[in-house]
Amino acid sequence: MKTLIVYAHPEPESLNGSLKDLAVATLTGAGHEVRVSDLYAMNWKAAADAADYGPHASKPLNVALDSGRAFEAGALTPDVRAEQEKLLWADTIIFQFPLWWYTMPAILKGWVDRVFTYRFAYGVGEHSATKYGERYGEGTLAGRRALLSVTAGGPERHYTARGINGPIDDLLFPIQHGILYYPGIEVLPPFVLYGIDRITDEDYADAAKAWEQRLLTLESTDPIPFRRQNFGDYEIPSLNLKEGLEPVGRTGFGLHVRG
């Protein structure tokens, strides 16, 4: 595999830092190629603005269209172009981050905002009576797989259907389905460590073994079976799931997962 690790934690000696280092060692030890984007070490600029698009920035600024023009002209800033090139190089992407305020850290969201530009990650394909662009299972990043490796402070029971924080799959749905699956990336089930504020050395040893096992089985792990947009499950152009396709009793985000 050619794996890109996008790592977002400000402390190199954190649990997230250890998991990132273990991923690098495990994958390279198994003969895979690995590149790392350490966003804090890179002093990554998180805010998308007119400076990203140079002469292709309009007034008033239109982030989508301006980013697309700059991308097609090869005029995006060097840091953004470098990250896009890494994504095109990779066949597997691992996102390593702590769950902060129920989502990814701002620096990682800023990486998405700036790197996933129009025409690079979205805004492609035909729009017709039978197709609504290439997205959700199709797109410019199709053929790649991604995995979220996430640490959470609360215990696992807090992230269940009856838990106070809500199901972890629901919390991660906007990232897994809305950011990654949208441009065609297949998403593997996440690796989540809970209660990390109280983790012991023994706990870490067990977590490290589990993480190594996940890493060594990435190629054989089935992705989350999200429904593809243009292949019969959704009405077009309303993009509503067709009646009767959902399992009995299923509601919410789970409607968009097959089986």
UniProtKB/TrEMBL annotation:
What is an example of a GO molecular function annotated in this UniProt entry?
NAD(P)H dehydrogenase (quinone) activity
Q: Does the keyword Oxidoreductase apply?
A: yes
Q: Name one GO cellular component term.
A: cytosol
- Domain Flavodoxin-like fold stretches: 1-215
Record-linked InterPro entries:
Flavodoxin_fold (IPR003680), Flavoprotein-like_sf (IPR029039), NAD(P)H_dehydrogenase_qn (IPR051545)
The UniProt entry, under Pfam families, shows: Flavodoxin_2 (PF02525)
Q: Does the keyword Protein transport apply?
A: no
Keywords assigned by UniProt, alphabetized: Oxidoreductase
Superkingdom in the source lineage: Bacteria
UniProt similarity note: Belongs to the NAD(P)H dehydrogenase (quinone) family.
Q: What is this protein called?
A: NAD(P)H dehydrogenase (Quinone)
Q: What is the scientific name of the source organism?
A: Nocardia tenerifensis
